[in-house]
Amino acid sequence: MYDSGTAVAAALEAGGAELDDAQRQPNGVDLTLGAVFEQAEAGVVSRNGKRVGDREEVAAEDGRYRLGPGTYVVRYGEPVRIPEERIGFVLPRSTLLRNSCTLDTAVWDAGYEGVGEGRLDVGHAIEIEQGARIAQMVFARADHEGTYEGEYQGEGL
Ligand SMILES: O=c1ccn([C@H]2C[C@H](O)[C@@H](COP(=O)(O)OP(=O)(O)OP(=O)(O)O)O2)c(=O)[nH]1
């Protein structure tokens, strides 16, 4: 069972997100584009740890990112707090898909708080305005043991 968009909006606002009406969707809340980065060195995923490789921020021109084909890391524009008994999923706006682009996203754990990131795959050159809606977050009810306490907790806040 998924929460309504109104319930997702209430949870995000309780976590400090400032939402405009266009972000409020029937089944979730649209997240906006905060910043774009290009990976500059190798990261590490090992059995006992991980490290995110350095990245360089892409400059917006007149508030717009003009992105050529390739892989980017995006930071969303809103802080997110995933309530207990919920799991979060972020899906790309279909307009990205219709323009040969997409977002790759992972699980948003109960108890996570922060300004999250995702992988933007640009299959054809695209222009995206900073602050434009790029994704939708939905919440599903979920059992869980414990809450998120990893090193991304509090990122970007
Ligand atoms: O697309 C996503 C998915 C999740 N998150 C946030 C919320 C999630 O709770 C946290 C950690 O995600 P995950 O557990 O998948 O990352 P990990 O690499 O396993 O990190 P950790 O070892 O801290 O669990 O990152 C994002 O920013 N973007």
TrEMBL record:
Domain of life: Archaea
Matching Gene3D superfamilies: 2.70.40.10
Swiss-Prot/TrEMBL keywords: Hydrolase, Nucleotide metabolism
Pfam families assigned to the protein according to its UniProt record, in alphabetical order: DCD
GO molecular function: hydrolase activity
Keyword NAD attached: no
Signal peptide as annotated in the record: none
InterPro entries: dCTP_deaminase, dUTPase-like_sf, dUTPase_trimeric
PANTHER family the record matches: DCTP DEAMINASE (PTHR42680), DEOXYURIDINE 5'-TRIPHOSPHATE NUCLEOTIDOHYDROLASE (PTHR42680:SF1)
Name of protein: Deoxyuridine 5'-triphosphate nucleotidohydrolase
